[in-house]
Design brief:
Elements: H1 11-23, H2 30-37, E1 41-52, E2 55-65, E3 73-79, H3 85-101, E4 107-113, H4 122-138, E5 147-151, H5 157-170, H6 197-209, H7 213-216, E6 229-233, H8 237-247, E7 253-258, E8 263-265, H9 272-282, E9 292-294, E10 305-310, E11 327-331, H10 340-348, E12 352-354, H11 356-359, H12 362-376, H13 385-403, H14 409-416, H15 421-447, H16 453-471
Parallel strand pairs: 3-4, 3-5, 6-7, 6-10, 10-11, 11-12
Antiparallel strand pairs: 1-2, 2-4, 7-8, 8-9
Helix pairs in contact: 1-3, 1-16, 3-16, 4-5, 6-8, 6-12, 6-15, 12-15, 15-16
């Protein structure tokens, strides 16, 4: 009879264990550590939505504020039938630590409504979203300077636009109202690059991790992404953009994609754009032409690869399946995809784990840019674009006179062009991800060698949050 592996899969307990594992390295007042670790408050409520004269439904909603050492607090809004209070509290805590690691001046928050959005029409979803937002407004759990939601599992630009419009209706004339949520459509106060920001951050983070020969040598890997193979679990917003951007790196092959109903593989690399169009047209990735389909979703763990990217939900890699993984690098694009027990097993096998609280931070980083844009009421790049183009034109003209010939038209256009908003956003995101990884690596390998990169990331986060509390004068 097979032995049943017992493992605590409560997400909130897991995040607390990860915190404790890092806190043991720090000489911080235990009372302050307790304050940082605790979730400050959780708002649970039930709210009715009327879909017709005779059709009402009651929904459960949550909004957790983990830490208010920085204001506003920030975190996504999740629509899923798996939502529960422990999950929301855990995700709020991760937001606190994530923001600290990438130096985004927000506290951590998270919200959610327990239902399956795929079972409702767009009109019904709008009613649910607006009613949920109204409840948050009533308790002051949303606002540009208080609590700023964003998109998450089951929500996107459309839902954020509904939330922003509802807030504006309740606060007529507020000039900063658009800053009440991030992840909005660009036409409704959003920022270029936000939709793909988490996936783009995954690309930048992995690219930086592959710059260090000494770190990669024990894995049998060479520096750089050229020639590397990638498998991704999850083909939602994060998984799709991570796959798209990594496949655009020279020599990278995305050889496998796993979804809830199937896994598709192709040894010489999947065409990510074609796969996305297939998914849109059929509702699934299965039976994608010129690729092999396996109808067992868990088979994604069996594919040999250099980089495995879990980009779905928490607790996907556990003690029950971690022995199946044949990757050399586990890059956590999702929140909390690996349990502590599975992490220990993978580390013992020499697998490098790039932790979620770093690698998943692209979304909140660009949300910070959007929030700042809304408060400044100015599109990024608007002031300097034309001036820089004039300066660049003169510089290119001087180079052409010096060498006695005209540059290639495509090269010339690239050199002359001033930065658009998307250029500035991507540049800021890349700088953020690179600097954060270097700091984590520095702590992990050099300053205070730790047993994992996750521990190093938590150490950095705890130290920054502790400093903020001390500067507030709450703790000596």
């Amino acid at each position: 009879m097979a032995t049943v592996i017992q493992e605590d899969l409560n997400f909130n307990h897991i995040v607390s264990k990860q915190f404790d594992r890092a806190a043991q390295y720090l000489k911080i007042n235990p009372a302050l550590l307790s304050q940082i670790k605790a979730c400050n408050n959780v708002y649970y409520f039930q709210f009715p939505v009327r879909f017709s004269d005779s059709h009402y439904e009651i929904f459960e909603g949550w909004r957790a504020e983990h830490s208010q050492h920085r204001k506003p607090v920030k975190g996504g809004t999740r629509f899923s039938e798996l939502v529960n209070q422990d999950e929301i509290m855990a995700l709020a805590a991760l937001m606190t630590y994530k923001c600290a690691i990438v130096d985004v001046p927000f506290g951590g928050s998270k919200g959610g409504v327990k239902f399956n959005p795929k079972k409702y029409t767009p009109n019904q979803l709008e009613k649910i979203t607006r009613r949920f937002t109204a409840e948050l407004i009533r308790k002051e759990y949303i606002g540009p300077g208080e609590n700023v939601p964003g998109p998450d599992v089951g929500t996107g630009e459309r839902e954020m636009a509904w939330m922003a419009d509802t807030y504006d209706t309740f606060h007529p004339g507020g000039i900063d109202n658009l800053a009440c949520v991030t992840g909005k459509p660009v036409s409704q106060g959003g920022i270029a690059g936000r939709r793909e920001a988490t996936g783009r951050g995954v690309q930048y983070g992995i690219r930086e991790a592959f710059r260090y020969p000494d770190d990669l040598k024990p894995l049998g890997l060479t520096p750089g992404l050229e020639g590397k193979t990638v498998v991704i679990q999850g083909f939602g917003n994060v998984g799709y953009y991570a796959a798209k951007f990594l496949s655009e790196e020279d020599g990278v092959r995305v050889i496998g994609i796993g979804e809830w109903d199937s896994v598709v593989t192709k040894p010489d690399g999947l065409d990510i754009e074609a796969l996305n169009e297939w998914r849109k047209g059929t509702g699934s990735i299965k039976n994608f032409p010129n690729a092999k389909t396996n109808l067992k979703p868990e088979s994604v763990w069996d594919i040999p690869c250099d980089i495995l990217i879990p980009a779905a939900l928490e607790n996907q890699i556990t003690l029950e399946n971690c022995d199946r993984i044949k990757a050399k690098v586990l890059a956590e694009a999702a929140n909390g995809p690996t349990t502590p027990g599975a992490e220990d097993v993978l580390h013992a096998r020499g697998v490098m784990i790039i932790p979620d609280i770093f690698l998943n931070a692209g979304g909140v980083t660009v949300s910070y840019f959007e929030w700042g844009k809304n408060l400044s009421h100015m599109r990024f790049g608007r002031l300097q674009k034309h001036l820089e183009e004039i300066k660049n034109q003169k510089l290119v003209g001087a180079i052409e006179r010096l060498i006695g010939k005209e540059l290639d038209r495509e090269d010339k256009n690239f050199l002359v062009r001033g930065p658009e908003e998307i250029d500035l956003v991507n540049s800021g995101l890349e700088e953020t991800m690179v600097s954060a990884y270097q700091h984590i690596r520095d702590v992990h390998y050099l300053k205070a060698p730790t047993d994992s990169m996750r521990v190093a990331a938590f150490i950095i986060a705890i130290q920054k949050v502790a400093l903020a509390y001390e500067q507030l004068g709450i703790f000596p």
